[in-house]
Amino acid sequence: MEDLYNEKYFSERIPAEKDYHMAFQWLEWMSRFHKTNGTCLVLDYGCGTGKFASIFNYFNEGGYGYDPFLPDNALKGGVYWKDWSQRQFLDFDLVVAIDVFEHIPEDKVEENIKRIVSTAKRFIICSICDVTLWDSYQDKSHVTCKSREWWISQFEKHGLKYIEPPEDWLFRRQMYIFEKVK
User: Fold this and answer.
1) What is Dmax (Cα atoms) for the chain?
2) 107-141 pLDDT tens trace
3) I want to staple 178 with a disulfide (CB 3.0 to 4.6 A). Which of 107, 114, 124, 182 is the partner?
């Protein structure tokens, strides 16, 4: 996997206007549930160059990123780490995993779900390219291509409830929202 996720893989992954729009949508949605006079701590799990961690900080939220393949050219404006045991916070108000899980081998999916469940206070938002989406098999880095129902069941096994994404969200068809059930 390390050969695939090198500097070249990450070199073109800079924030685009759609990324700011998506992050704003997620934060706006979250604000209905998360009332605070401080910042919302957000973990970008599988952050790549730190695109969303940087964007969350742009919106004055606490954006942090974790990626075991974190490149040297991670974006400024975020706090990142490669080693899960070195994370600075244990609990995040929101954990996002955008275009991450389809890149994880099937035998490692449960371990990664457990990680984000253990650190999310309440909500997890994922974008997962499933088998019904055209590029599912086009991208050779998509090693776990399963149905939407399969992905939902994997998260629900860990005490999460699936919430249908709002109709107006960008890339809604590949978005998943999960809430921890008390």
Assistant:
1) 44
2) 999 999 999 999 999 899 999 988 776 665 567 77
3) 124
Structure tokens at 120: 């999310």
Sheet holding 160-163, edge to edge: 79-81, 62-66, 41-45, 92-98, 120-127, 175-180, 160-163
Written as six digits, the tokens of 96 are 């996002």
CA–CA gap between residue 46 and residue 116 (Å, rounded): 10
Rounded distance, CA 11 to CA 2, Å?
15
Cα of first residue to Cα of last residue in the chain, in angstroms, is 36
Neighbours of 176 (CB within 10 A): 21
Q: Which helix (H) or strand (E) holds 124?
A: strand 120-127
d(CA 79, CA 170): 26
